[in-house]
């Protein structure tokens, strides 16, 4: 196929893309791909290349009145696979893993398949009635944080890139111990930044370095960590030290084991390292191949701690206000066109990858909302933007600071939609 793209004040560019019955071939043999994950001569099979009608699913969801009409609506949703949660005023709750997923052999998708071998073809789709779903569980609550939704007994291959366990585990724990579910408590839960990963790993790290001779700066860092509540709060220094320490530990553990001939493979997931520390602290993986000594976890824990603290001192000075998580790890909200002047940068935010408030350097919750169902529903929400898309408007980013602080605003329901209300400022928002 030939694609033509007009260039302002320039000649039209033609791009030839080879297609097979599997899909497009982004790079032909001899061409250099921009990513090592793209192999020249390989076709890319993607469910989104198939005809689908997701818009119909959302149109019918807007008119759904009960569980059955909700199920009928989402049956039109093919890709990408999504978690659809349901709640009714009558007390019913449900979650469906909905979309088209191919029937694949175990491991298929980790490696290239032979396009000339019919045995490598997708024979069909996982039947929709066999996709993960739950209606009214006995425990009384449901949740999704992109975790693996099934047990090892599930008969089909859903994928291999699910989120870590700790975010969903924290959600389920808070729901389990919550005496009464209120909007205020649900809003507070959305801002929870406690890391179960830190709660498991940090005691092992502190135990490993206990009794070692340390510098004054290192002693201060250990004191901060000893008093840390495992929450990635913007005003705390504990998450800064722990984050730098565990990243340094992972690098020192795996780099010498997975680098061969200047080609660096993917490190094992951090959960794998945590289990290795718990079950086999004398594993040869902790040995530094570059030294004559044979290192164990306790050795790498101390070496990585000293390196992490030295790195923080070099970058931010002595322990103090400059070590706050919200100062060291800031968040940027990029404009869609990556124009710096139209972006918001340097935001001090709580949260991290793997916690409920999953705010990182360049991402976060794009929409926070809590809804209290009833005859007259109430809802609170917030998004990182503003009411106007015009950069010159005072309303271009007027929600960003509230979002960064974890605040929400009551949402306005109009019935009918043209109802006049005192909270409406008029049609012009510039």
- Poorly predicted spans: none
Q: Give the overall form.
A: globular
- Strand content of the residues, in percent? 5-15%
What composes the largest sheet? 3 strands, antiparallel
The separation of the N and C termini measures 44 Å
Instruction: Briefly note the structural class of the backbone.
Output: alpha+beta
User: What's the mean pLDDT score?
Assistant: 91
Q: Give, in spatial order, the strands making up the sheet with the most strands.
A: 5-6-7
The helicity comes to: 25-40%
SSE topology string: EEEEHHEEEHHHHHEEHHHEEEEHE
Number of strands: 14
Radius of gyration: 26 Å
Discrete helix count: 11
Structure description:
- The chain has 430 residues and is α+β, with helices and mostly antiparallel strands.
- It is built from eleven helices and 14 strands.
- It has helices at 54-61, 67-74, 165-177, 183-190, 196-209, 216-226, 238-258, 270-279, 297-316, 325-328, 400-405; strands spanning 2-5, 13-16, 18-20, 23-25, 82-87, 93-98, 133-135, 259-260, 263-264, 330-333, 344-348, 368-372, 378-382, 409-410.
- Strands 5-6-7 form a three-stranded antiparallel beta sheet, covered by helices on one side. Strands 12-13-14 form a three-stranded antiparallel beta sheet, with helices on one face. The protein has a two-stranded antiparallel sheet with strand order 1-2.
- Helix 1 packs antiparallel against helix 2 (67-74), helix 5 (196-209) packs across helix 8 (270-279) and helix 7 crosses helix 9.
- The model has no long low-confidence stretch (mean pLDDT 91).
């Amino acid at each position: 196929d030939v694609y033509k793209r007009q260039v302002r004040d320039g000649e039209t560019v033609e791009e030839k893309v080879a297609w097979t019955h599997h899909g497009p071939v982004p790079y032909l043999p001899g061409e250099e791909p921009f990513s090592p994950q793209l192999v020249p001569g390989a076709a890319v099979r993607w469910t989104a290349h198939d005809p689908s009608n997701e818009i119909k699913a959302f149109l019918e969801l807007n008119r759904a009145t009960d569980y059955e009409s909700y199920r009928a609506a989402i049956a039109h949703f093919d890709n990408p696979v999504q978690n659809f949660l349901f709640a009714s005023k009558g007390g019913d709750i449900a979650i469906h893993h909905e979309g088209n997923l191919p029937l694949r052999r175990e491991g298929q998708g980790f490696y290239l398949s032979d396009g000339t071998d019919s045995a490598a073809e997708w024979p069909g789709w996982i039947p929709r009635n066999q996709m993960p779903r739950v209606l009214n569980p006995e425990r009384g609550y449901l949740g999704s944080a992109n975790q693996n939704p099934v047990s090892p007994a599930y008969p089909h291959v859903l994928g291999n890139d699910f989120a870590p366990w700790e975010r969903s585990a924290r959600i389920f724990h808070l729901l389990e111990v919550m005496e009464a579910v209120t909007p205020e408590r649900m809003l507070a839960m959305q801002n929870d930044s406690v890391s179960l990963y830190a709660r498991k790993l940090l005691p092992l790290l502190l135990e490993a370095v206990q009794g070692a001779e340390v510098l004054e700066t290192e002693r201060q860092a250990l004191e901060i960590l000893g008093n840390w509540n495992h929450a990635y709060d913007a005003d705390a220094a504990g998450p800064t030290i722990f984050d730098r320490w565990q990243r340094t530990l992972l690098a020192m553990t795996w780099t010498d084991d997975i680098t061969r001939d200047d080609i660096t493979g993917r490190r094992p997931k951090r959960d794998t390292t945590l289990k290795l520390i718990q079950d086999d602290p004398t594993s040869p993986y902790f040995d530094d191949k570059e030294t004559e000594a044979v290192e164990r976890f306790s050795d790498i824990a101390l070496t990585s701690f000293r390196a992490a603290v030295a790195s923080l001192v070099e970058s931010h000075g002595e322990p103090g206000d400059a070590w706050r998580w919200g100062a060291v790890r800031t968040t940027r909200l990029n404009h869609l066109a990556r124009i710096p002047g139209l972006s918001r940068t340097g935001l001090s935010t709580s949260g991290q990858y793997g916690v409920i408030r999953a705010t990182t350097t360049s991402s976060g919750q794009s929409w926070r909302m809590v809804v209290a169902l009833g005859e007259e529903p109430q809802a609170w929400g917030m998004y990182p933007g503003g009411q106007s898309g015009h950069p010159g408007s005072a309303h271009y980013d007027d929600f960003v600071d509230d979002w960064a602080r974890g605040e929400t605003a009551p949402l306005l329901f109009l019935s009918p939609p043209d109802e006049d209300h005192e909270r409406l400022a008029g049609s012009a928002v510039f």
